[in-house]
Every structure is written in structure tokens, then in C-alpha cells.
Amino acid sequence: MLETARTFQRSGDYSNAILVLNRALEQQPNELEILKELAFTYYLQRDFVKAKQTAQPLVNRPDADVQTYQIMGMVYKEIEERKDAEKIYRDGLKKFPNSGVLYNEYGEMLWTKQDYSAIKWWEKGIEVDPNYPSNYYNAAKHYYFTFDKVWPIIYGEIFLNLESYSKRTPEIKDLVLQSYKKLFADPDVNTKQDNKNPFVSAFLATVAKQAPSLNHGISPESLTVLRTKFVLEWDEKEASKFPFRLFEYQRQLLKEGMFDAYNQWIFGAVQDLSAFQNWTNTHAEEYAKFTSFQRGRVFKLPANQYYQSIAAK
Is the pLDDT of residue 287 over 60? Predict the structure, then answer.
């Protein structure tokens, strides 16, 4: 019955989903999964009164999970009870201190209040739950609009590998491309950011050396050359000091002859769609090999590769 209700829910038939869930509750009145699904369906139906009535008792249960706090927080956000939302997220994070979901939702709630401390919570989510994509999505956008030169590129590309084919993917591909343009808009790349962070200093020093690759402008092809030189030098000089899965993955693609296709996948369509279609037509086998590989693998970041320093405590 739960699966039947979810099928109705996915198709937007919330009334039937609620009917089935209520029938299920007659058989199992205290089942957390059914009650969560009911609260979430009311939320989707925009019946926030019933959503709140259903979800509120659940967060006090000993078996309340991350999703329970998430649903309650979402309801509070919608009805603009922000103090209650903040309390729910903090209570949830006390119970689940490694939940990237709750750090992300808390950050988003703060962002709606124009509270720019939101970035600290997204950063904490990245630190403790490095494979949850939404914290990278929000952090990349935040840094892009604060004119940071490094983190929009790094967090944006990590997001693209964690969430490669969603509605948010094209937006972040364009953000990464524009971030490279911003980075190299100033000829003195290496000195235009506060380099107290040794990882950032190493990144800027390494990437600045490759600037001549862009003498004829930024394109997928010139970025491929720049990024190839970058990853080879990083692998030789910095990788032992700063092991980093993203750069290791780039090195793997380079070794297996898929780095050109990978860079086209990121930058091609957002830079020039017709040129990208031309490239995929003339490199059909190469592009098919990469996309097949990409769809068949799981990009996973290990713990202890966090090089930022502003996460919320």
C-alpha cells in the first residue's frame, strides 16, 4: 500500500495517495514510514495545516529519522515559522550530526532570510557528508556570487559528478565555465585572492602556470589543454600533500583517453551548442565510451579530503 501511495504521489494524484495511506494506517496506526509519507503528501498537496499536524508528533518519537526532521523543517519553512524551523534543524543535527541533508536544508532556510551564515552550514554538510550533492550546489552558487575564484570551480565540478543528469546540471555547467572566465579575466591569477588557505594557494599557483593555454580565449578545447597540464602537474607536485578525489578522477579519465570527452560534456553545450553537436558527431565513439563509463560508475568522495575552513561548529 505504501508503494501504491508513492506511485499516486509521483503522478501528482495526491488525493488517491492520501486515501491509500489512511487505509494503511488503519492496519498499522503507528508505522513511521506511513505517517512520514502522509505528512509529505499533504506537504506536496500544499495542505500545510494537515502536514504540520501529521509531522509534528513524529519528531518527538525515539525512532524519528533524518527524513522526519527534514519533512517537519520543510513544512515550517513553507508556513514561514522560521524559529520553529531553526529549532527543528538544530534538534535534528544534534541527533544526526553527519546528515548532509539537514545541513543543506538548514542553510537553505537561512538563505531565504538573507542570512549569509548559510554557507557555514553548507560547508559543514560537505565536510561531514561529502557525497550529498545539494551542499555543493548551494555552496558553488554562493561562492560564484561572492566573486570567489576557486570554490565555484571545485564545488561546481564535484556537484556535476555527483548529480550528472538532473535539471540542475546545465546551470552548474555554465557556472563552472563562467568561473573559469572570471578566474582568468585578471592576468595576475595567482595573487588576486586571499591565499591563507594552503590548498587554495596550491591550486592557484598550479593553474596560473597554465594560463598560456588560454592565449586564444576560453573554449572547451583550450580548457581541456589547461586542465590536462594542471592535473599532470598537480599529480606530480601536490597530490601527496593534498589528496583529492576530483583531481584523481580527472587523472584517471586522462589515462583512459576520456578526458577530452569529459571536458566537452562539461563545457561544450553551454559554450556553443552547435559546436558541441559537431564535436559529438565527429567523435561519436569517443563520446559514447565516456558517457557509458560515466553512467555506469559511482563517483564517491572519501572522508578527510576537506580543505575549506569555515564550516559551522
Answer: yes
DSSP notation for 234-296: HHHHTTTTS--HHHHHHHHHHHTT-HHHHHIIIIIHHH-HHHHHHHHHHTHHHHHHHHHHHHH
SS3 170: helix
DSSP string, 191-248: GSS---SHHHHHHHHHHHTTGGGGTT---HHHHHHHHHHHHHHHHHHTTTTS--HHHH
Whether 293 and 197 have beta carbons less than 8 Å apart is answered as: no
According to DSSP, residue 302 is labeled P
Domain assignments of the chain as residue spans, ordered by start: 149-313
What Cα–Cα distance (Å) separates residue 111 from each residue in 53, 189, 232, 239, 256?
26, 30, 38, 35, 41
Q: Is residue 242 predicted with pLDDT exceeding 60?
A: yes
Name residue 167's amino acid: K
What local confidence, expressed as pLDDT, does residue 246 receive?
A: 98
C-alpha 102/C-alpha 100 separation (Å) is: 6
CA 222, CA 263: separation in Å to the nearest integer?
A: 10
pTM of structure? 0.92
